[in-house]
Amino acid sequence: MTPERLELVTADGVTLEAEWCAPPDAIATVVLCHPHPQYGGTMRSIVTSALFEGLPRQQFACLRFNFRGVEGSGGEHGEGRDEPNDVAAAIDAAAARSATPLALVGWSFGADMALTVADARVRGWVGIAPPLRFRAAADYATIGGDARPKLLVLAAHDEFRAPDDVAAEVAPWTATEITVIPGASHFFVGRTAAVVERVAEFVRMLAG
Q1: Which CATH number is associated with domain 4-207?
Q2: Dist. CA 52–CA 64, nearest whole Å
Q3: What is the Cα gyration radius of the chain?
Q4: Are β-strands 15-21 and 4-9 bridged in parallel, bridged antiparallel, or unpaired?
Q5: By three-state DSSP, how is residue 31 classified?
Q6: Cα 149 to chain center, whole Å?
Q7: Which residues fall within 8 angstroms of residue 184, CB to CB, at 6 or more apart?
Q8: What is the pLDDT of residues 96-137, one digit of tens each?
Q9: Edge-first strand listing for the sheet containing 102-107
Q10: What is the pTM of this model?
Q11: Which pLDDT belongs to residue 134?
Q12: What is the pLDDT of residue 1?
């Protein structure tokens, strides 16, 4: 499958670059949010790329995009304040292309952004190694209290926030599963296949 290049326009007028890849028999749609732009994160970062390549082979349509200020996207990095607008634009584009159930999946900074976007079209959320530090606690509480399913995929040896610490913070959340990938660091080098399989399993469950 050859990805289709897209341009997204956010509610505040920023143009973002994106890619769409969809098998003809897609049963669900996944929007992917990449890690921190100021630490080299782009839509081509290791985990995001592994998901974008692996999920379409398992009947999932995928949209990945660059946050504002990254590579070919316009605007400037918004320190987490403006990036939820980027996620919303990506949801708009994905929903316009596929009526299948939609999952919002982010890694690291992207997970933090995804876990604050309570769009009614989202069937469930996946946060991969979320630091839960780039937005205020009240922002995460909205998703935390939402009845829709959530999956957190954590790294056993995360350098930025220990999985036990994340688990303790999300203990009050509803409908939340936690998976810890053995032997993994925050970057999941050598462990991306395990991440793809766990995300695919969750999204397949959302699709029914």
Answers
A1: 3.40.50.1820
A2: 7
A3: 15
A4: antiparallel
A5: strand
A6: 14
A7: 155, 156, 157, 158, 190, 191, 194
A8: 999 999 999 999 999 999 999 999 999 999 999 999 999 998
A9: 4-9, 15-21, 60-65, 28-33, 102-107, 122-128, 150-155, 176-181
A10: 0.98
A11: 94
A12: 82
Q: Are 30 and 103 in contact (CB under 8 A)?
A: yes
Structure-block tokens of residue 172: 């009050």
Q: Which residues contact 156 (CB under 8 A, 6 or more apart)?
A: 163, 180, 181, 182, 183, 184
- Compute how many other C-beta atoms are within 10 angstroms of the C-beta atom of residue 76: 12
CB environment 36-66: b (16+ within 10 A), e (fewer): bbeeebbbebebbbbbbebbbebbbbbbbbb
Place of tokens 């732009």: 37
CA dist 19 and 99 (Å) reads 18
Q: What is the pLDDT of residues 128-187, one digit of tens each?
A: 999 999 999 899 999 999 999 999 999 999 999 999 999 999 999 999 999 999 999 999
**pLDDT, position 95:** 98
